[in-house]
From TrEMBL:
Organism: Nocardioides albus
Keywords annotated in UniProt: Membrane, Transmembrane, Transmembrane helix
Residues of the signal peptide: none
Record protein name field: ABC-2 type transport system permease protein
Residues passing through the membrane, by range: 21-42, 62-79, 100-130, 142-164, 171-196, 226-246
Length: 252
């Protein structure tokens, strides 16, 4: 079984990097993250010495990395279904559970690692522009640890929703709404309709923002509750998406 999963994972890795869209997403995300990092560094160099470190400056770039990772993971998970390539894929890997494990693992690991490398690079760019801020290794480890959980969870959520909808457009809209749009909209509406606070806090995007920035739309949010919420969404999405992959017709 492990050999089969390993072979399927290698095929998934090759599939990701054999399509043009993956390179486009990687370069576009890199341009956004490094560009924002450069702007933050230049802005810090032209004013009074900032109180934080280079990693504090790099923190906002994680938001742009998350946006790129979500879109990239979504497209990777739906590409086979939109192109019809899922048929030969399942002929080569008839055990759909194996395909599910390999696909989710490879897509999430690949996109999350790229995102982490880019945010780290953005921090180093800020440090190079403003050496006075410093770049403590301990803070780098803390930043990478928080972002690793958020980016990996976001990518897995995108894979699950992609497998469930089998539509690139539908999955993109759903993922971006859950992670980036609804949390902000509901947070604003909750100023008028207070009962929306609980719904806003239950959005995966709210938990992601809290884990990265330490702030959320709901005062009673904690690191533990945010992690549990993200994990629950990921498990639910992968369960439903995996159920459709395993039991549903591949071409429907």
């Amino acid at each position: 079984m492990s050999t089969l999963i390993g072979r399927t994972a290698q095929a998934e890795w090759a599939r990701i990097w054999s399509v043009r869209s993956s390179w486009i997403f990687a370069f576009a995300t890199a341009a956004a993250v490094l560009g924002i990092g450069t702007m933050i560094g230049l802005d810090a160099s032209s004013g009074p010495p900032p109180d934080g470190t280079a990693w504090d400056g790099a923190l906002p770039t994680g938001f742009f990395a998350l946006f790129g990772i979500l879109a990239w993971a979504t497209v990777c998970s739906t590409a086979d279904h939109t192109s019809g390539g899922i048929i030969p894929t399942l002929q080569w890997t008839p055990r759909r559970g194996v395909l599910l494990v390999a696909r989710a693992t490879v897509i999430a690991a690949t996109t999350a690692v790229v995102g982490l490398l880019l945010v780290t690079a953005a921090g180093l760019v800020i440090w190079a522009i403003v050496p006075a801020v410093g770049a403590p290794a301990g803070e780098a480890a803390g930043l990478i640890g928080r972002l690793a959980f958020v980016l990996t969870s976001g990518a897995l959520l995108a894979v699950g929703i992609g497998l469930l909808t089998r539509s690139t457009a539908g999955a993109l809209v759903t993922v971006l709404a859950l992670m980036l749009i609804l949390p902000f909209v509901l947070a604003q509406l909750s100023l008028v309709y207070t009962w929306l606070e609980s719904i806003a806090a239950g959005m995966p995007g709210s938990s992601a923002l809290y884990l990265v920035f330490g702030e959320g739309p709901y005062e009673e949010m904690t690191t533990t509750s945010a992690r549990i919420t993200l994990v629950a969404w990921v498990v639910g999405a992968l369960f439903l998406g995996g159920l459709r992959l395993i039991r549903g017709d591949a071409d429907r």
